[in-house]
Amino acid sequence: MKTFDEKLNIVCEIFENLTSSEQVETIKALLIKCQPPQLNTVQEVLQTQLLYDAVFSQFLPQELITKIFSYLSAGELSRVACSNKHWRDVANCDVLWQKFCRDKGWLHYGIDHDLSMEQPSPRSKGQLIVTGSTDGTVRVWDVFSGQCLDVINGHSDSVTCLQMMDTEVITGCADSIISVFEISSATCKKILNGHEKGIIDLKCDGKHLVSAAGDFMIRIWSWPSGSCQHVLSGHVDEIETLSLHEGLVMSTSWDSSCKLWDINQGICIQTLSGHTEIVFCCQFDDVKAVTGAGDGTLKIWNLTTGECTDTLIGHQDDVYCLQYDNDVIASGSADSTVILWNHSGECLRVMDGHIGVVRCLRLMNGRLVTGGDRKKIMVWDGKTGDLLNVIHRNPNLLHLMWISDTKLITASPESPGVITLLSYW
Predict the structure, then answer these.
(1) Could you tell me the pTM of the whole model?
(2) Please, what are the domains in the chain?
């Protein structure tokens, strides 16, 4: 009677003498015969074997690992960080990245500012960032030093939206008032009254200021005089957002519709009906519009006829953000996915990786930057959807996000409010 060790040696010897394809088939046959406890053992062994290349670094001094990694470029180090969680932790070494930031002159970036606010709304221009908050103040920040240059008071309620215009900042407030402040002196130059409920959104193109409020109304103001030219009515529920393009404004609403308005004439050109839930986001140009809604779909519209030409189905939950360029349409959803579509409405790629809602995204220079819950900002190739970088140092929940070629600004609504400046490329 042979012992177990003798039997094991015979089995191993037979296995070693098989061809590669025969070995694969043998393994498959054995796995089919295995019971759950045996499969768990196989999994544990495989995990150990597959992670061996990462585990060796745990036995090296951190100084030696840092020295080895210092010979890598920023791009190579980013690719190492994308391989798995262990290598990401190893590669996210401040000493390594400080060198790259010093070479680029970015050492002042990456500072978190405690603004003692709940819902900051940043707008950036040049070397300044202006933020508004539920505490009723507007703060002006220096991008490079991270210092608060001034605090602008004068609001009796939360600042819900704002926009910088050269040396001035326009603010919308929950008390239904729009104010215009001189940034350098922090003094109020103008107050625009007319809305009956809190301001939800405002946009200015240098000739006209467009505002939307909780009274379901849109007002067109002459800029910079501040005189009200038109009052636009038509929505039957609260307006969600405004978007401007060459003398036109598009409004999205909780009434499931979008409306396209002529700013100069103050008339509704098209009403886009077809969504069954709130329309969260939109973008439009001379010929078409793309909208995303709480029904989980995107729609492409012909603005000449007002007809829906395509309905993009793929998300499993609310579509919170979208943007398109000449090549693709990108969308982010509460289902934690980002999807790239072509302009014919075909799904090109579904990108996973976010945990929780994808609240904001930006397409710029061939890159797609997406932000969501759980401290995660992801950088993708804007055409292929390949993952290029993952950033984990932003606040837990993103409210708003702006990007340039190499840097981004995020706003977190969690108390205390935080504005974060990061280099992502």
Answers:
(1) 0.70
(2) 1-48 (no CATH), 64-96 (no CATH), 112-423 (2.130.10.10)
